[in-house]
Amino acid sequence: MKKKILIHIGAALFTILILVLLQRLLMPKYISTIHEGNLIAEYYDEVKEHEVIFIGDCEVFSNISPITLWEQYGITSYIRGSAQQLIWQSYYLLEDTLRYEKPKVVVYNVLAMKYNEPQKEAYNRLTLDGMRLSVPKLRAIKASMMEDEAFITYLVPLLRYHSRWSELTEEDFKYMFHRDTLSHNGYLMRIDTKPVTVVPKGKKLPDYRFGPNSYDYLERMTKLCKENDIELVLIKSPSVYPYWYEEWDEQIVEYARENELTYINFLKYVDEIGIDYNTDTYDGGLHMNLSGAEKFTSYLGQLLKEKYPLPDQRKDKRLTKIWQKKMDFYYAMKADQDEELKEYGYLKSYGAVAQSIEEE
Amino acid sequence: MLFTSYRFILFILILFILYYIIPKKLQWMLLLLASYLFYSIAGLRYLIYIATTTLSTYLISLRLNQLQSEQSSFLKEQKDSLDREGKKAYKASMKLKQRRWLVLCLIINFGILAVLKYSAFTITNFNGVLNLLGTKPLPLIGFVLPLGISFYTFQTMGYLIDIYREKYPHERNIFKLALFISFFPQLIQGPISRFDDLKETLFSEHSIDGRNISFGLQRILWGFFKKLVIADRMLIAVNTIVRNPEEFQGVYVLVGMFFYAITLYSDFTGGIDITIGVAEVLGIRIRENFERPYFSKSIAEYWRRWHITLGTWFKEYLFYPISISKSMLELTKSSKRRVGDWLGRRVSIYIASIVVWLITGIWHGAAWNFVVWGLLNCFFILASQECNPLYERFHSRFHIRHTFAYRLFQVGRTFWLMSFLRAFDCYRDVGTTFQMYSTLVTRWNYSELFQGGLMQLGLTIADYIVLTAAVTLLLVVSLQGRSGSVREKLAARPFSLQYAAYTVLFIAILILGAYGVGYDASQFIYSQF
Fold it and tell me: CATH 3.40.50.1110: does it fit domain A42-120+177-359?
């Protein structure tokens, strides 16, 4: 009898092992396309000692460079950003981050306040699949699911990605057990340029008020930061599109005033920052390229440095060693992108597909 | 709740655990609770219909039983005082009373079904007539059909007729009767069980049994394989063809018929496998509903092997009562006198067959395509019966023996004939179906199929490879099934082999199943009927 039970347990474990392997094989790797899919998971491999954490959508992971913050101000930072990150996802990512470290400052980009409801399953996946299993992850899933989604598919992604069996590539086998780091502390580098040709005007909206769900999570975020003695800074990154309405801005100003938070709309400081939309964006104004990101980060870093107690960490040899490696990787990628741009005229392996999806 | 939904899997897992940990005498009550919970998920307001059917059937079966007991005690008491004629007259009067109650219950329950299912169809057709007369049309009333109403109404009325016929005693406990009517695994698409078949296992106490659980889970797995890997994948191509009749004609009509035959079989038998499997895990035996119907050599045989419980229902409760009814016997007699013995003998059979097939058609759906489909089935069955002597003479004249090749021909002929008839179900419109038939000869595009035509049906090469492998497996299992249960055969093999077989099947469903993002979760086809 005992032997029989052991055989059954062994057989069940063997099946589970096969399923785990299949899941690893079938999950998208986001190596050659849609690099955004890797951003959330990369954080867990980090040495988690950051003074500043950025949360939000593409306006943080495209427009802010933690390497520049380190190079110019000795500030250690990480971006927990992801494509179309909704505010409840930002909140739960912050909760998740606080399980590992306690930053001094959290910077939240407020663009996602405009979304009161879950938007698209594909974007949910880019944020949630990378999160490690935790209570914040479970809550984030619950808050983010579209009507036709099933909770279990986030816990067992094999159920979501099973049909990829017919589109597997060499990349899926190669990266089954490890992944290359693609970001620079959450920053996705792009050095190419596509100038802003038209400054979009916002279409009239029937209602400019942010939804109750958005406010609820903003309040939760404010409370969470206060409970943990973290300074919460609200920003609107200087991307010209999607359009940021004056009515939206007023609501955030009002919220920041009521809650004694700092809010900076950087669209109002474009000239001061030195952003030139002819040279500093790679997709006509949605996202900054490296040049734009470095200019913006330099300006933001100065503000953070002046307002919050963020000592220069470059004196710390251990940290310097860690960050030197990051800088080497940063400049190597920059050189590689330079070369690719010269050779092909566009960035062949750095997010052309991702861009088209973002622009959809 | 879809059988193939995560919710359903969670639902049955919780039920299985609860079922075997609660005291055994409470097991049937748990099933009743689960069945009503299952039903209420489809819509709380539908509970009223199934509750009405349950209550009316219970009360009237009680009344029938009272009358039957009254009759037997009266006859016992009056054993010596009543003569034969007196007893006969008394019995006839009591039977009449019973019949009135029976008819009342049939009217209530078939009435509910008729109003909910056929109102729109009837009014539409009536409006057609009014339109011809230039009169103002009646407003259309559309009802959402409660889950499984056709199945549970037929099952319940079968029970009541059996009580009327005194086949078995009525169920005294209304809650047990409610469970028989609402037992959730068979609620969506049958089988249509008989009370005397089901009651023993449904209400008895069950201990945990490894074999039941293992066999039940295997059956569920096989059902999921048929539904998710074959039916839901092939349905994509079927829908592409039948929803675009102007684009897909000629050879595509044939492809559509062929694919629909496989889809419907995998879908319906897959659902029944899940039903029987779930019941098996609970220790409950449900009657089989299929016996490899696509191996049938004639349409009559096909209908004895396809949806067996519905066929049996019609035979027992409609065909026989009509053909041996007093009026039909009289009609047969007078017909024999008027048109001769040969034709006279057939009148009652023809009438009963036409009625049965007309109702079978309408049972499948409130639309003319189902009426035509039913009548054509009837026509082919009667015609092939009548032509049988002709075939025999032909066979003997040309020395055609019933060899394997000939049997194969018969199987192929029946398969294609049924596939042709099923086109009415596919296209859901009589005119379109006949038009599509005509394109088989007018649109000569047979070479198109292998010049990229198959790739226009919404399936990829990978899909076709999966389908070919899966249908081959289905065929092999069906062939193996002819000489006994495949599961029994597999159970006799070493554990490692059994384990490997079921693990591969499980993984095949997980990976190759047409479910989740990119696929529409489709309800079982028969659940619409």
Answer: yes
